[in-house]
Specification:
The chain has helices at 3-18, 22-44, 63-83, 87-106, 114-119, 135-150, 157-165. The protein has one domain. The chain is globular. It is mostly helical and 167 residues long. It has seven helices and no strands. 66% of the residues lie in helices and 0% in strands.
């Protein structure tokens, strides 16, 4: 075996050792920051949900209830993600919250072709242009999927609970 092959295999072994712990932790921390920031803005801000049209069945709730639910799921989800506690529950909760946000806030107002829909795949929303801005929420959705399907990783309370109390 050549020296380069040896170092390559050692590097792969090192990456394999960190894989169950580091990537899920980093995903949890970035998502916790983003959802925590959004929740804090709602907690300290003014309720603008009354100006939105929510998809069914979320349109059945009063705007104040939706505002409070979004606020506390974002804040509670952020804390849970940091701790790695009930990660799959909060991942699916935040996925649902994000889908509702995309449908009611970030989705283009009118589109009839895929190219018009693709115009909304951006982070900045130009006020009043109607093209939407669903890129960032879509990225959050994709980032939540490994946590939903794979769990919080080894550096989490979920892992500790599973180790202590079994599967």
């Amino acid at each position: 075996m050549s020296l380069a092959t040896h170092y390559y295999l050692c590097a792969l072994n090192l990456l394999d050792r960190f894989a169950p712990a580091l990537p899920p932790l980093l995903l949890r921390l970035v998502l916790a920051w983003e959802f925590g920031e959004a929740g804090y803005e709602k907690l300290t801000g003014t309720n603008w949900f009354a100006d939105l049209t929510f998809p069914f069945p979320f349109d059945l709730l009063p705007a104040e209830v939706s505002w409070q639910m979004a606020t506390w799921f974002e804040l509670g989800g952020a804390v849970a993600l940091i701790l790695g506690l009930a990660t799959r529950f909060f991942s699916i909760s935040l996925i649902i919250l994000t889908i509702v946000a995309i449908a009611s806030v970030h989705w283009p107002e009118h589109w009839s072709t895929l190219s018009e829909l693709a115009t909304g795949y951006r982070i900045v929303d130009e006020e009043g242009d109607g093209f939407g801005n669903y890129k960032l929420p879509l990225i959050y959705l994709i980032m939540l999927l490994p946590l939903l399907f794979g769990g919080a990783g080894k550096l989490s309370f979920d892992h500790w609970i599973r180790q202590k109390y079994g599967k």
